Amino acid sequence: MDWDDARYFLAVAREGQMLGAARRLGVSQALLSRRMASFERAVGARLLDRGTRGCTVTEDGRAMLESAERVEAEMLAGIAQVQGREDEVCGTVRIGAPDGFGSAFLAPRLQRLITAYPSLRVQLVPVPRSFSLSQREADVAVMVGRPEKGRLRVRRLTDYGLSLYAATGYLDQAGRPTTLADLRDHVLVGYVEDLIYTPELNYSGEMLRDWRSTIEVSTAIGQFEAVRSGAGIGILHDFMAAGQPDLVRLFPERTLTRTYWTVWHEAMRVERRVQVVVDFMDRLVRDDRPLFRRE
Q: Where is the HTH lysR-type domain (predicted)?
């Protein structure tokens, strides 16, 4: 098995499409496609589902991805150790992220980054909007939905699930819905519709065609707190709801899936401090992957 094939597979899995991966690797799309086919033959399993909107990693592909990422991480760590480059990482990196991912997941784990790179200064801006990398509003951004324009480097960070949740106190008072249609008789918590900044977040209609929110909150954190307090039923991020004993997951078969993408400007590709942060977030998500893929 050729390590280059595994490296190409990593690029396709992270980019989510052949064209973007080929550009990132500096090879033709035709060559990359042939190498992927060769890699799948060597492994003996289909690793990618190819569609008109890009490539999706299969179940076998996810297992291979985790193994390949571990090998890559060990190689990079070894190179960094030999070259003594950890001490060279310094300066400020501003990370822009959706409030749910930024506040609930990333912020509590930033101490690990500073411990590894004590000369690095990190600014986290977790707000519910998009960031302009060209205008340097952020050095690295986590986005919902893959950006298609601009001189950007893009890497798939992780898929994540969203499900219906309610607090036990609310269900004790209002009763538990037995069908999705029953939701019409409940207090529903959702986004402020005219403040939704990306179509990827306009998902309430996917859960219930005529969803009507009684309580509208413009942030994921705000919706989470409203539902947890017993205000009503809402569509929450599974990784935020995990480990909350007072939250009940309703209709788990109706889980929705979205994707976080790590994005940074082409001009920042040689900045070691930026690459360190990008790789750090990859490792965090890989280590806590069950949070994002709740069964």
A: 1-58
Which class is domain 159-257?
Answer: alpha beta
**CA pair distance 218, 288, nearest whole angstrom:** 27
**Rounded distance, CA 63 to CA 258, Å?**
20
Cβ neighbours for 139, distance < 8 A, ≥ 6 positions apart: 93, 94, 95, 133, 264, 265, 268, 271, 273, 274, 277
Q: Can you spell out the DSSP letters for 101-165?
A: IIIIIIGGGHHHHHHH-TTEEEEEEE-SS---TTTTS-SEEEEES---SSSEEEEEEEEEEEEEE
Region for 54 from its dihedrals, namely left if φ exceeds 0, alpha if ψ lies in -120 to 50, beta otherwise: left
Query: Which part of the chain has CATH 3.40.190.10?
Result: 159-257
Report the C-alpha gap between 11 and 17 in whole angstroms. Answer: 9
Structure token digits, residue 190 = 């959702």
Task: Copy the structure tokens of residue 122.
Answer: 């990190």
Q: How far apart are CA 162 and CA 248, in angstroms?
A: 13
Q: Which two tokens stand for residue 223?
A: 């919706």
* CATH (residue range 1-84): 1.10.10.10
